[in-house]
Amino acid sequence: MTEHAPDTETDSETAESRDFIREIISDDLATGKHKAVVTRFPPEPNGFLHIGHAKSIILNFGIAGEFGGRCHLRFDDTNPAKEEQVYIDAIEEDVRWLGYDWGGHLYHASDNFGQLYAWAEHLVENGDAYVDDLSADEMREYRGTLTEPGRNSPYRDRPPAENLDLLRRMKAGEFDEGAKVLRARIDMASGNINMRDPVLYRILHAEHPRTGDAWKIYPTYDFAHGQSDAVEHITHSLCTLEFEDHRPLYDWLVEHLPVPARPRQYEFARLNLTNTVLSKRRLTRLVDEGRVTGWDDPRMPTLAGLRRRGVPAAAIRDFIGRLGISKSNATVEMAYLDHCTREYLNKHALRRMAVLKPLKVVIDNYPEGGEELLDAVNNPEDEAAGSRQVPFSREIYIERDDFMEDPPKKFFRLAPNREVRLRYGYYVTCTDVVKNDQGEIIELRCTYDPATRGGNSPDGRKVKATLHWVSAAHAAEAEVRLYGRLFETEIPGSDGDFLDDINPNSVETLSGCKLEPALGEAPVGETVQFERLGYFCRDGSEGDRLIFNRTIGLRDSWAKAQRQAKA
Ligand code: ATP
Ligand code: MG
User: What percent of the chain has pLDDT over 70?
Assistant: First the structure.
C-alpha cells in the first residue's frame, strides 16, 4: 500500500503538534509527571544514516525544541564486530547537517558498560538472570515458536553463586565466543518470545572503538538500551514499531534494577519509501558489492547521498514534517520526496544557464570580438535574490535538442529560417546549418536583431520559444551527472534478490557541458536551477574538477498525478 501524502501546503507545525506522541508529552508536562522532556536519538554506528533515520532525528530533536527540553545523541555501540569510527563521524556530521545540535549531550552505550555490568550482577544475585551453556542452535530450539511455548534450559536453575562466578569468568575472558551467555530469567512460556529468557550478555573477543579490549562480554541491545535511557534520565524513549514487542522486556528490566529513573518507551511507524531500500543491511551490501560508489553515492537514500545529490536539509525536514507521526506502517512514494524537494528548490534555488549537450551558434551580424553583459534574474520566486550579469558574445552554445533541421509540427524551438528568443538576450534567426563530412550538424549560423535586447521586441512580433545559452568564450566547462532512480521497481526485492532490481541506467555522465561563468565559482553543495533543465548541485568529491550532480528534473510527476486524480 502506498500512501498519498497531503497535497495541500500543509502547515507542518499544526500537523506536528497533533500527533499522539506530542499529545502524551503535553499531558505529562501539564500533569507534572515530568518537569522537562528529554529524548534521544540512538543510532548504531554500523552504517550511514538514511532518510528513515531522519524521521527519528526530526521527531526526537523536534520535540525537544518545541517543548523546551533536550535531545541526546547516543551511540548504541554494543556490537564492536560491526561498528566503526567512520560511521560515528558520519552520523555526527549528518545530524548537524539536518539542522540539530545535541549540545554537550553526546553519549555512548559504552559509557555505561561498567554500570550495566554491575546491574547484570545485581540480576544474578537476585535470581533474575543466569549463565546458560546452550549453543546458539540449542537456544533457538528451546525458545519455541509463536504457537509453541519454549522449554527451560537445563542450566536455568543454577544457584546465584555459581552464576556469579561464571559471569565473572566470562568477563575475565576465560571462555570462547559463543560458549556461554547471560540470560534474564523471566518466562519460557510467555506468549511474547522476547520474554523467553532473553540474552543480556554475549561473549565477543572484539576490539571496541571506544573501550578497546577492556571487555570480553558485551550487552545486547535490549539490556543496554533501556538502562542507558534510565542513566541519561530520558523521559520519552521513542522508537519504531518493531520494538513494540520489546516493551514488556524494557519495562521488566527497569522494574528489576535499581535504575535512577523510569523512562517509558513509545513506538511510532517507521518511514518506508518506494524505489529504494532503507535497511542498513541492504545498504551495506550495495556499498560492499560495489553497486554504488559509496555510502554517499548520490543515488543512495542516505543523508550523505541526498546531500551530495543536492537535496537541501530543509526540504527533508519539510517532507518528514508533512508526513506526520502515526502508528500505522505505510510506504511513501519517492515521487513525494521529489515533490517536496522541487517545491523547496523552486522557492530558494538561484537560476543559472547551462548547456549540457552543446551546439555552437555563430551570430554573423554581431561585431567580431565584441561582448556585453546582460541582466539576468537570479530567482523569479524571490525578489531579494536580485540579479546578475551574464556575458554575451558572437559565439554561443545552445542545447543540441533545441534545434531541428526539419522540425515536426509541434517543435517550436530553433529551426532554419526561424526566429527564437535567447533568454535575457536577443531574438535570433537561424540562417544556415554547417555540417561535417559525416553530415552531422556542427554549427549554426544566425543573425540577431539588436532592437530586441533584453528579450523584448519593439514591434511586438512574437516568437514561440525562449532558449537558454552560454557564451562560448566565457563558458566554464563541466562534467554533469544525470541521476535517475537506483531502483525502478517500487518495492525492490519483492520477488527475489533486491540487487536484481537495480536500474542499470541510473546514471548518465555528460562531459564538455558549458556553464555560465558564475557557475564556475558555485560553492560545493549549493543547489541551483539550470534553467529549463532541472536542479543541479556542485559536487566536491574530486577536488577542483567542476562536476555537477542532477538533484532532480523540473517535471513534477507527483503533482501531475495528484491533479489527474482530482480531475
Ligand atoms: P536498520 O533496521 O536499517 O538496521 P536500525 O533501526 O537498526 O536500522 P539504528 O541505528 O538502530 O538503525 O536506528 C537508530 C534509530 O533510528 C532507531 O531509534 C530506529 O528506530 C530509527 N529508525 C531506523 N530506521 C527508521 C525508519 N525507516 N523510520 C523511522 N525511524 C527509523
Ligand atoms: Mg537498531
Answer: 97
Residue 566 is predicted with a pLDDT of 81
Give, for 272, the enclosing helix (H) or strand (E). Answer: strand 272-273
Amino acid identity for residue 196 in this structure? R
Question: Quick one: which atom of ligand 1 is closest to the CA of 282?
Answer: 3
Closest ligand 1 atom to 42 CA: 14
Say yes or no: CB of residue 239 within 6 Å of ligand 1.
yes
**Same domain as 338, residue 359:** no
Ligand 1 within 6 A of CB of 47: no
| CA distances to 114, 353, 481 from 535, in Å | 51, 11, 12
Which residue in this structure is represented by grid cell 548504531?
Answer: 44
Number of the ligand closest to the Cα of 273: 1
Mean pLDDT computed over every residue of the chain: 95
Mutate to test the pocket of ligand 1, among 56, 75, 77, 265 (most ligand atoms within 8 A of CB): 56
Candidates 82, 151, 156, 270; catalytic one: 270
CATH value at residue 455:
2.40.240.10
Same domain, 339 and 368: no
Predicted confidence band at 461 (pLDDT cuts at 50, 70, 90)? very high
pTM for the model stands at 0.93
- Does residue 558 share a domain with residue 495? yes
The answer to whether residue 255 is catalytic is no
- For residue 93, the CA-to-ligand 2 centroid distance in Å is 19
b/e code 533-543 from CB counts within 10 Å (16+ = b): bbbbbbbeeee
C-alpha cell at 411: 517543435
Range of the domain at 411: 354-468
pLDDT for 199 equals 98
Predicted confidence (pLDDT) per residue in 86-138, tens digit? 999 999 999 999 999 999 999 999 999 999 999 999 999 999 999 999 999 99
